[in-house]
Specification:
heterodimer; A: alpha+beta; 3 domains; four-stranded mixed sheet; 19 helices; B: 9 helices; 10 strands; globular; binds adenosine-5'-diphosphate; binds magnesium ion
Chain lengths: 485, 223
Amino acid sequence: MNFIKRGFLGITRKKGKSLILLAVIFILGNLISGAISIQQATGNVESTIKERLGTAATIDIDYDEWEAKPDTDVEEINVDLIKEIGNLSYVKYYDYSMSTWMGSESVERYQDEEMDGDYFVDGPSMDFRLKGINYAPVIDFEEGKAELTDGRVFTDDEIEKGTSVTIISHKLANENNLHVGDTFTLANEVYTYDEETGEEDFVTSRDVVLEIIGLFEPQEAKKETDENADSGMMILTDDMEYHNTVYVPNEIVIDESQFNWEEYMKADEEFAEMMEGEEESFEYYEPIYYLNNPEDIEAFTEEVKPLLPELYTVISASDQYENIAGPIESMSKLAKYVLIVAVIATVLITGLVVLLFLRDRKRELGIYLSLGEKRSRVVGQILIEVMVVAVVGITLSLFSGNLLAQQVSDTMMKADDNKDEYYEEYYYEGISTDLTADDVMDSYEVTLNSSYILGFYGVGLVTILISTIIPLIYIVRLNPKKILM
Amino acid sequence: MILEAKDLNYYYQDGEQRRYILKDTSISFEKGKFYTILGQSGSGKTTLLSLLSALDSPHSGEILFNEEDIKKIGYEKYRRNNVGIIFQSYNLVPTFTAVENVLVPMSITENEIPEDTKTVAYNLLDYIGIVKNKADRLVNRLSGGEQQRVAIARALATNVELILADEPTGNLDEEMEQEIIDIFKRLAHEHGKCVIVVTHSNEIALQSDQAFRLRKGVLSAYE
Ligand SMILES: Nc1ncnc2c1ncn2[C@@H]1O[C@H](COP(=O)(O)OP(=O)(O)O)[C@@H](O)[C@H]1O
Ligand SMILES: [Mg+2]
């Protein structure tokens, strides 16, 4: 009849009390397990969505803040700062890019069959986007936005010297019967613009002759066309834009911009006078950083912020999570509060119930003590009694609480579906996403997985253990003489 | 000398004053004898017994068990291995059967007891007058006299030589009282135990080998 056996007898000989305790733990356990289920599901959503959003970040002016302080002098971000940030330990790799647009006499832009001619605008043809590169292996390829299907990427030497080489899209090459090793001639045309008439006059032009060193194919990410017609169209243009993008070293973009600027100054004397004395830099880069881990973004932001000039801020892909995950976030918050309240309620209620039951058994416990039983074993006996019942109650509520969470979150999501929310956002290449709140909802799933099971047993059992502290103090303070004599 | 109390003092603080229940009380007991301590209600009998059974400690003085201070043995250990206590109100575990109640101290004590504890428990109960089918009953389905027998069996279960009883027949009728007293006599005379019974009954005191009277905190021999 040792304390372990006494513990089990304590459960079976007092079935009514054991059932009451079981019911209390089961009911409160449902709240805890439901809250943990929802927390886990929302946590999974956060990590999968953030994973899909990627680790990209850039720095740019915080336009909201600029609006608030319009008189601030805005400094430009210089290359040294871009590099300094790029050398932080969180950064996997980074690039900075300068872009310009040009037309060509000899090469036709790639045009999707589904697109009508209405894409064309009047004025000088600016069919191709020259995207400057500083990171020779091309970050878009490394990140899987596109794949190199033929030829090679840039060398560091080419990037540094601004060698006239380019990587163009496979489709564009096919359209124009171009191959690796061929040349691609673009025209850097200079026009003046008359503000009164809106007319543009051709000034001069120079050829930009690039050797094709590689071909790329954009990744077919946009396979599921959205039911929404507008965004479907958007994706299509995006896609076509990419086929007409040509990668070149940054130096080429700078050179050509400078030529264009200088020729323009020559043609428009009024404007040249106005600009006299102004130091003009042609270097304006958009940096992009890829971090090692999505979780690093906060630490990265912390470290970068002090380095930035006034008004600048870090913009990261995962920033968008807050916008698209509204309903999930509010559910997560609610679940967190329910969890906290349920844990506190469990500690108090279970503690009280156990204490009441123990007071009823004061004499029995006094008897054990009078027989010389160690207090630790009396405590052990009560712990066994409570924990065995708790394990049963928690195991039952493990399943029912999970089911409950599924029902509750289904209802909440349906309620949220009606609210159509629209977010106005600046667009950042490589960072902005087409993920929507629907994607977030779709990735939400309450499951009965092992981390939930472990998590719930952990929280549940620790909560019950804490709830026995006060009753156990009661046992430790029992005085057998007072009880028995 | 199996048990010896030396200069015990025990008091309650009554405002500024100390109200002594036991004052410089000394007493000693031998094995094989049946002792009674006689006193009126409120004379301090229970107090004395609680000290001898290490359920409470005196403000000064010492209690020696086989020449060793029970404080040194450790109160809990002393209760576990050296003494069997019987209470006026039986104090059995109501959710256990008679035999289960007897088994409880057997799992607590460090004394050597036969391995087949269940048989020992049944035999003990039988010897005290509880037959098998009553031994398997929950104790609250037994009469007062039967319950006190179970309590005696429990006190004997750990094979101790010292039995302390606080008004063990206080709740029983006369016939039952005599049967219990006979058991105590047998334990002392046939089994060599030291049995100390605290009582307010002259009849019981007259049957003991040696009786003491407790009055106003002072112990004296009772003739
Ligand atoms: N907690 C207490 N505070 C003050 N006095 C007490 C307390 N407990 C008992 N007493 C007193 O101590 C005296 C002895 O009590 P007790 O040993 O129980 O006597 P007995 O068992 O002989 O009836 C009694 O007069 C009682 O009133
Ligand atoms: Mg008394």
